Amino acid sequence: MRSKVRTLQIAFTYIGTVVGAGFATGQEILKFFTRYGHWAVLTIMLSTALFIWLGTKMMIIARRIEAESYEDFNRHLFGDQVGSTISLFTMVILIGVNSIMLAGAGAIFEENLGMHYQTGLLLTILGSYFLLKRGISGILQMNSIVVPLMLTLSLVIIFNTLHVPGAERFLFLQTDRSWFGAWMSPLLYTAFNLGMAQAVLVPMARHTNDERALVRGGILGGVGIGFMLLAAHFAMSSQMPQILQFEIPMGSIAFRLGTVVQTIYLLLIFLEIFSTFVADIYGVETQVKQRLSIAPALITPLLMLICYLLSQFGFSSLLSIFYPVFGALSLVWAVMLLRVPWSPPPRSGSSNTPGGTGTGITIISVKPATRITRK
After folding, report:
1. What tens digit of pLDDT does each residue of 213-244 get?
2. Residue 328 CA, distance from chain mean position
3. 359 pLDDT higher than 70
4. C-alpha–C-alpha distance, residues 183 and 42, integer Å
5. Are 139 and 279 in contact (CB under 8 A)?
6. pLDDT by residue (tens digit) across 274-301?
7. CA within 20 to 30 Å of 76's CA: 165, 203, 224, 371, which one?
8. 365: helix, coil or strand?
């Protein structure tokens, strides 16, 4: 029973880390899948297979090399120097994304709850701080609440879409987009999201003793992500092309389903922002602890202060420059993850060194022989 609970926690955390606010609003799904019409179902299946394969492989390797942070994992893939540089760039992207998500949380409080923008920011930061004090267990527990709600909402949207005229259009939707763009899109989408998710999945895998739970959690998590992608695509396809004009496509669908569904949807958007914010701060924190000799108690408040300050200024314009670069880098990262061999399980008396050439070889430490003096 304990193993099954751990499997579900891993699966929910995997889903919750990938399914952020961009996913919830529907913009990501619209951009990467739905606008490619009849190709979308096949490309969603490809993306699901990659999430299962690469996500599980990343967690297994992270556990076997005993990677404490995503920097250790990147050093394993690319070597010390290149891996360290990639990790530093990833940290900048994560802090930027968190700043935008924090601004989004403030906007939700202001536009939908009638509260001040700064109040939303401060409440989000305060709640995140106390949850982070629980470490990785707090993140697991948070996602164990949020993700089942997300999956339930996906089911509600599917059942309601079944009665909409043109619900079957998701299979036959026409598009003027190229087939090359259609098949590159799931590769970029999966690589980008896994590149971001490694900040949480790597340390989570490191602190999971049961490797079978990681495998089962990776499979369930990948299937869950694919299911939610398909559910959102199914709902938005029935509203094409009118839905392209909305800033929050999924919101336009949820709002037509009544006040209760609308309230649940807004709550879920905030909870997804909150859970992703907490998870990313935790991932960056583990890397900062390895790079800088700062008191651990100060790292989280400092990171949150940086995100708070950046959320006051339009950081999204700067991030729009970094995003394409990080997307291309994530594709290279995913190819390296595909190529690198599975590391052997750690052996007793062994010391797995994360930094290296990415060969996954276990290095055994041997004590020097004791000198024997004859009388």
Report:
1. 999 999 999 999 999 899 888 888 887 777 77
2. 17
3. no
4. 9
5. yes
6. 888 888 888 888 888 877 777 778 888 8
7. 224
8. coil
Task: Give the model confidence (pLDDT) of 236-279 as tens digits.
Answer: 888 777 777 776 777 777 777 777 777 887 788 888 888 888 88
Q: In residues, how long is the chain? A: 375
Token output for 293: 């000799």
Compute, in degrees rounded to 10, the torsion defined by CA atoms 137, 232, 268, 300: 50
- The total of other beta-carbon atoms located within 10 Å of residue 217's CB is 28
**CA of 276: how far to CAs of 13, 87, 128, 290, 349, in Å?**
10, 18, 10, 22, 37
**DSSP secondary structure of 266-316:** HHHHHHHHHHHHHHHHHHHHHHHHHH----HHHHHHHHHHHHHHHTTTTTH
User: pTM for this one?
Assistant: 0.81
Query: Which alpha helices (DSSP H) does the chain contain, by range?
Result: 2-18, 21-25, 27-32, 40-64, 70-78, 80-112, 117-132, 136-161, 179-206, 211-237, 249-255, 259-291, 296-310, 316-339
Residue 97 CA: distances (Å) to CA of 35, 277, 279, 314: 24, 9, 12, 12
* 8 A C-beta contact, residue 36 and residue 218: no
3-state secondary structure of 364: strand
